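User: Hi! Is it possible to get a structure for several chains at once, not just one? Here's what I have:
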Amino acid sequence: MDNIILSVRRLVTEFKTSEGKVIAVNDVSFDVEKGKVLGIVGESGCGKSVTSLSIMRLVPKPNGIISNGQIIFDNKDLLKLDDKDIRSIRGNEISMIFQEPMTALNPVFTVGFQISEALELHTGLKGENVRKKCIELLEIVKIPRAKKVIDEYPHQLSGGMRQRVMIAMAISCNPKLLIADEPTTALDVTIQAQILDLMKNLIDELDMSIIFITHDLGVISEMADMVVVMYAGKIVEEASVEKIFENPLHFYTKGLMNSRPSLLKKGDKLQCIQGMIPSPFNMPKGCAFEPRCNYSIDKCKVEMPDLLECEKGHKVRCWVAHQKVGDNHER
Amino acid sequence: MKDNLLEVNNLKKYFPVLKGVFQKKVGDIKAVDNISFSIKRGEIFGLVGESGCGKSTTGRTILNLIAPTGGSVVFEGKTIFDVENNYEISDEEMRKLRKDMQIVFQDPFASLDPRMNVGDIISEGMLKHKIYNKRDAINKTKELLEMCGLTASNIKKYPHEFSGGQRQRIGIARSIALNPKFIVGDEPIAALDVSIQSQILSLLQKLIEELNLTFLFISHDLNVVRYFCDQIAVMYLGSFVEVGTSEQLFDNPIHPYTQALLSAVPASMPSEIKKRILLEGDVPSPANPPEGCKFHTRCPYTKEICTEKVPELKSVDGGNLVSCHLYS
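Assistant: Yes, the chains can be modeled jointly so their relative placement is included. Here is the combined structure:
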């Protein structure tokens, strides 16, 4: 298909630890459409960040191994490229913004130096032109007094400004795909609103696709077109943002939605998901969410359900939801 | 009318800025700058604001965990300190009062001693205050663990054996061990996952009801505060800009900062996305706050008077207390 920029197929990423093997990402498949925002939601440890690191081929070696799957970007399988080829894509055609703008920037180099590094490498611009382009980028991300900030060090900037610098760096080579891993989690709400607003404008202006990773459903509802919900390394639900919010099918998604106090009036009882995510060393045999699910049936304990389409464009991994649609999806 | 459990008057906390070899004082960071409020018995008072606005410092100064620069705090009719009148409660008395005032911290990984087991952590206070002997303290600890949703058999385990949510439950069990009347929750759920947040929040709700607690809830999460608190104060650079009941404040925010803050909260449903008020720039440094109204550098409605005079916190139409020249 032409309108798909990135296609992840059956991705498995594992980590070797002293206590044994941990499968952080387990058979994950999804597509990112051109000019659209894919939101990945999940709690800590569900594999959302490892998925993004796998796409960038940045899984820490030698303990992390991508053991299966394909990541097709621009008709190329990123997992088959050698280090030199992946370097020409990373930061150029696919770039990334991280959660902590404090630690993602190098404290001993100026902002300008850090932005120009990728520019010089990928675009071949030199000297004055690089500097001009840097100032232009800082102005695109709406940094006031860009001409001065370019010679400042990260510690002289506030959290919001640093995240803007990170974005400037990420868009410097006009990437086709931007991976944003919890870009606003460390920021205050008013600054978060500024950054989200900026990112929305950039999508329109630069015609890029975004993978937006977060645990904040509110942010997802603002930003995403398609949503993937992850739990314990697997995708449990996948649909458009409207469907996910208006008609969540998986009990985990429902639980997440209901545990937000934003929809409650004062005095309403708070709904919670009981229990905790299972330990990666001791995964349940059947559905990973079964121990916390109030609606589980016998089948849930013994067999992991597949991710099946229950309504058009709405996939879910749950025996109960499958049963409701009838037996047409039995394989 | 319920009586006031806690009264805070003109509280100030300045941190000195030191410079040079002789550590000469060159200025002050006004972390908390002249705030007054009272909390009624059984009430949940919410303190919201962005990072660095002084909400945690307020909580700690009230508990006399850090020395105040000015103002007074009265707890149950007993003055804890009154800087202007040179009064401070004796150490002996303060120790007695500590039983009644407890705190739950934000980071459940840093607030539990890794070398103490859960039983020791929770029962330490009971033994120090000689409320129970050793055997009763153990029984009480087990009871507390069960109350907070853990099993009593966990008593011999160490903090590293627990997840974040469980550790926060231990922290809460510790805070209620002495049957306190008043608890400060300093962002008690900020470090936790979404599904765990709601678990801890409903635990707090249950305990507040059962134990008849009065609670000062410090948070930056506006949705949680709206749902959880009775009274809410919005802080900006060490001062209150608006105080009101949860309903008043969220249905009818008056101060331009409150309005911007509320509109910055992401929509809960895609269908509810609305036009927002975007604030320009960042919060100014508290070491060098703007003259007059501290918000005037980012306020869309700044008038001349805002740059000159600090607005008073006054009631607008009998509702919220607001500190803004637009309404005076």
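Chain A has a mean pLDDT of 90. The radius of gyration of chain A is 21 Å.

User: Great, thank you!
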